[in-house]
Amino acid sequence: MLTKRQNLLETIRGGKPDRFVNQWEAFGGVMGDPCKLRTRAERGGPDAVDSWGVTTTWPANVPGPFPVHDYEHKVVKDITRWKEVVHAPSLDVPDSAWDDVKAQASQIDRNEQFLTFFIAPGIFEQAHYLMGIDTTLLNFYEEPEAMHELIDYITDWKIKYAELVCKHLKPEAILHHDDWGSQINSFMSPEMFEEFIVPAFKRLYGYYKSHGVELIVHHSDSYAANLVPYMIEMGIDIWQGGLKSNNLPELVKKYGGQISFMGGINNGIVDVLDWTNELVAREVEEMCTSCGKLYYIPSMCGGGPGATDVYKAVSKEIDRMSSVMF
């Protein structure tokens, strides 16, 4: 029997896996914030301001925090003057600040799992955190020069952060968050994506790959089928979070061998108040049978291991499908 790590590599390399990779089982996740970058509101608590100056709020009745983007709270009110108000957080922290994530990493069995470091927000997300997503998308059209400058600034900073990550943690995989679409389409056209976003991620993911990172796992729980060729160009190994609306079986058929796909089991379908084991079984079976054994990892689209009660039910059904199909 292959280890979880071996089985993942066989799956994404077109080899001979002996079962489905079951959601996140092959990734030994490490989460931490040594540079104090992600200060955010707590559920039901007061608003908070992070190290970029972004205000976040988390009402008690919603699943997660989000930026506050009324005029008063926007960091960037005029993109042509972004240099006056955007100041990247300092990365000058003592080596001891990395002790917690190093301790987490020491618990990962690297024979079984890839040591995986989680990073959020992404480059596009950081831009729209600063000014609002609607304003960001308008600025791509109206002020492209300023947007190129801001994205370059964010990317330069992220590469400096990547230097610290690789120095202190030496991860084998990176799980990077950057949502690029809604449920039905990408936020921007492929042409605009190619102009503004692709060069930034080629630089960032290129840095990680050249400094010992074996796998780039990119999270975007959205529609982004029209962006897959650019994901390949960026160096993404696994696109995690692809919704059913992407027609993953067709993407596996067309691009398998160049990139792999992890997702297809929509949280919005199975993670509902009246969910049943029968519902979960139907969705898991549909995705496993239609996508096949290679270049596909069945998984819920949003959230990590054990994020919801439904996660265990999905994992159980994936194991059942492994016994059926392998």
TrEMBL record:
Domain called Uroporphyrinogen decarboxylase (URO-D): residue spans: 122-297
Keywords recorded for this protein, A-Z: Methyltransferase, Transferase
A GO MF label: methyltransferase activity
Pfam families with a match to the protein in the record: URO-D
Transmembrane segments: none
Chain segments annotated as coiled-coil in the UniProt record: none
GO biological process terms on file: methylation; porphyrin-containing compound biosynthetic process
PANTHER family: METHYLCOBAMIDE:COM METHYLTRANSFERASE MTBA (PTHR47099:SF1)
Protein known as: Methylcobalamin:coenzyme M methyltransferase
Organism: Oxobacter pfennigii
